[in-house]
Amino acid sequence: MAAGTPDLPVTPVDGNVRIDIVSAIANIKAPTLTELNATSNLNASCYTTADSALIGIDQATISVQLLCQTVDRNEPGRKTVTLGITAVDNTNNADVDEDSNAFAELVLEGDVFYYVERRNKAWDAPYAADDEVYIVKFKAGQKTYLQPEANSYSRAAFNTFVQDFAGPVKVVAGS
After folding, report:
1. Which of 46, 106, 126, 171 could tie 131 with a disulfide, CB 3.0–4.6 Å?
2. Distance between CA atoms of residues 110 and 59, nearest Å
């Protein structure tokens, strides 16, 4: 076999990210199929924009400097988690159907939700046992409309305040 760049398979991201807004999860370190596939959840994959829905994780460093060692070492410290969501906002548009503004009507300032993200499976495929997900519990803040621009559509940035985070975690089959 010749040396060179391996021909690794890749999973396209387009159409293969599922984002849900969930009202209740008992244990975010072990979300269940029943919780994640509930019909009351909003599959927000087609409401959020491709350049948003970003979980940011910044982890501090703990510097360990011991007299008995000749090399300083580092350990992982606290994590600061952020969540940015930009979504379609059809508020005041009489030409859209009742489901066309579900995200903007659901995510209201002061309410608490769970943001669930799964990658590398179709956005409309139900959750399955052992799916790997990231979960952010957040309180919704004030939405802010994005600046109107030519050849675009109406969207808003939804401020979020992270209360808890887990990920990656596996979906469990229990209820």
Report:
1. 171
2. 27
